[in-house]
Amino acid sequence: MATSGYQLNFNQDFTSISVLDGSDGFRIFSINSCDKVEEIFTSDAEHIILMERLFNTSLVVMVTAEKPHCLQMLHFKKNQKICNCVYPTNILSIRMNRTRLIACLEESIHIHDIRDMKQLYSIENIAPNELGLCSLSLNSHLAFPISSTSGDLRLYNASKLKPGIVIHAHESRLSALNFSPSGQLLATASERGTVIRVFCVKTGQRVQEFRRGVKRCVRIASLVFSVNSQFLCVTSNTETVHIFKIDEKAVMMTLEAEALKAANAAADKQPEKSSPSSANAEASGSEAVSSSPNSGWSDYLSKAVSSYLLPTQVSDVLAQDRAFATAVLAQPGMRHICGLTYVQKDLKVLIASQEGFLYIHEFDAEQGGACKLQAVHDLRGALDGVVELSLSESSDKMSPGSSNKEARGSHNVPTINVTGGKATRTDGTPKTSKPTTSTNASSGAKSKKSTVARCIIENPDPVPDNSYAGILKGHQKADPLTADSAKYRKLCDAIDTPSKLFDERQFPPVAIAARD
After folding, report:
1. Which first-to-last residue range defines the signal peptide (predicted)?
2. pLDDT per residue over 120-150, tens digit each?
3. What is the DSSP code (8-state) at residue 22?
4. How many Cα atoms sit within 13 Å of 390 on the Cβ side?
5. Can you give the pLDDT at residue 438?
6. Left (φ > 0), alpha (ψ -120 to 50) or beta: where does 174 sit?
7. Residues contacting residue 219 through CB under 8 Å, at least 6 positions apart
8. Cα angle 54-58-62, degrees, rounded to a multiple of 5
């Protein structure tokens, strides 16, 4: 899981970026403007291999190299550990939104309520997912691959805990997938990396397709929608970042055609009624549809597609769009992650490099074209005797500094078994019986498909009370109810959104009571 160089990761709304520096801990930077990237936290904790921050809150979850099967939750502004979650095998990826936390293992996915970290569901027996590939939308739609040989994926409603549809996205295995901020679209890419496809989450219908290139197969490193869901930004191991434009008219046309197809299918299933005019109605059914004032040209297009007026290969080529805009990287061959977000009310392309730099490019939402490099920020640690890299005259040279303190730092649930694209639900222990807790969680052992992989929630050790009253009371046995309530209070405090929410970059918007 650990890679050479720096590991950089944006939060969900691209207002901050975290930097993992191997054994030197991690740092969090706030992206305030193109010319100002401010370090807000630094830690010299043990070797961290995974880290996620929840929006602009104080909640940080991380995984260390010493305990790759243990998820640690931290209130970083108070330097306070909240709880630990121990899983049967190593944690490969973490996804969060306002209500859910997803821990993805190689053969299982665990769904938690982020308010109290109770495990709500466990999806078992999925296809081997060595990369921990999954995506969680802001409205709690979950997508993950279900095949190790093809690009099949399953949608799952993590809010209602119900399985969704299966989408055959690509012929080869998936390498990247991500939801749009609205949760209505899902973008996917395969291991070949030549074609990017966009699907409707509600119907599973493919609504648009983009071609990144045909010369060579590449590894897609980042696949991200813009904050307004109008563009799709893609980075790979090549020197070019591709930005595609989502055709809203094409999306609406495809959705209307799918709705029309579903309506026609429902009408065909209705029992025939014996009436004198039934034969005439059936004979003139197609003419009535075409002559309807609400049918329009979209109905004609759907008929043309259904009648195979165009060969499949030709129609696929016509549906593939080239990049709307591009940005050229300074160091190709490295891993880059991207984001397309508003910075001071202007759309900017954010590109974070494995070598520890943040590149900010200008973006023209009307014309597209080449994106000009506007600023470069150095997110590396203090390097004595090393001169700042200057990539352009407008590059911003930020000197890192750190003064923060060091951060140190179950029960049966129903499961879903996913095999070959089919999901079967198995309930856990009945309410009348006592829950059983697994006490053996090994980082090297893999979970058997016949058993339920459980997560053990560990509350932090109680802080000794050295006050006068505490000394008089003496040592008391720890109360689990008190520990759970303390964990709940810490979680609520950590995920509480700061009061400064007037910045338009904050997403999703949170209502604020009017102040006197």
Report:
1. none
2. 999 998 999 999 999 999 999 999 999 999 9
3. G
4. 4
5. 40
6. beta
7. 175, 191, 193, 236, 237
8. 60
Q: Which residues pair with 219 in a beta bridge?
A: none
Strand order in the sheet with 135-136: 135-136, 141-145, 151-157, 162-170
Helix (H) or strand (E) holding 31: strand 26-33
CB atoms within 10 A of CB 147: 19
Q: Is 460 exposed, middle or buried (0-12, 13-18, 19+ CB in 10 A)?
A: middle
Phi-psi region of 499 (alpha: psi -120 to 50; beta: other; left: phi over 0): alpha
How far apart are alpha carbons 20 and 1 in whole angstroms? 13
HSE (side-chain half, CA atoms, 13 Å) at 355: 12
Residues of the chain with pLDDT under 70: 1-4, 22-23, 213-217, 271-321, 382-453, 460-483, 497-516
Phi-psi region of 192 (alpha: psi -120 to 50; beta: other; left: phi over 0): alpha
377: nearest Cα among 102, 17, 122: 17
How many C-alpha atoms does 494 have within 13 Å on its Cβ side?
A: 26
Quick one: which of 415, 417, 412, 449 has its CA closest to 430? 412
pLDDT of residue 399: 37
Rounded CA separation 191/182 (Å):
26
pTM attached to this predicted model: 0.74
Query: Quick one: which of 338, 380, 370, 347 has its CA closest to 5?
Result: 380
Q: In the sheet that 422-426 helps form, which strands lie side by side, from edge to edge? A: 93-96, 100-104, 108-113, 119-124, 415-419, 422-426
Q: Which amino acid is at 492?
A: C
Q: How far apart are CA 391 and CA 377, in angstroms?
A: 10
- 241 by DSSP, 3-state: which? strand
Quick one: how far is CA 453 from the chain centroid? 23
Report DSSP state, residue 183: S
Give which of 203, 231, 230, 206 is closest to 320, Cα–Cα: 206
Distance of alpha carbon 329 from alpha carbon 473, whole angstroms: 63
Say if residues 235 and 336 touch (Cβ distance below 8 Å): yes
Q: Look-up: residue for tokens 């025939």?
A: 272
What is the amino acid identity at position 77? K
Cα–Cα distance for residue pair 271/266, rounded to 1 Å: 10
pLDDT of residue 305: 45
Spatial separation of the C-alpha atoms in residues 78 and 207, rounded to whole Å: 46
Whole-number Å distance between alpha carbons of 448 and 103? 18
- Please name each of the domains of the chain with its CATH number: 1-132+397-516 (no CATH), 137-269+284-334+344-374 (2.40.128.630)
Q: Is 177 helix (H, G, I), strand (E, B) or coil?
A: strand
Largest Cα–Cα separation, the chain:
95
Preceding omega of 508 cis (within 30 degrees of 0): yes
**Quick one: pLDDT at residue 407?**
36
Angle at CA 132, nearest 5°, toward 126 and 137?
90
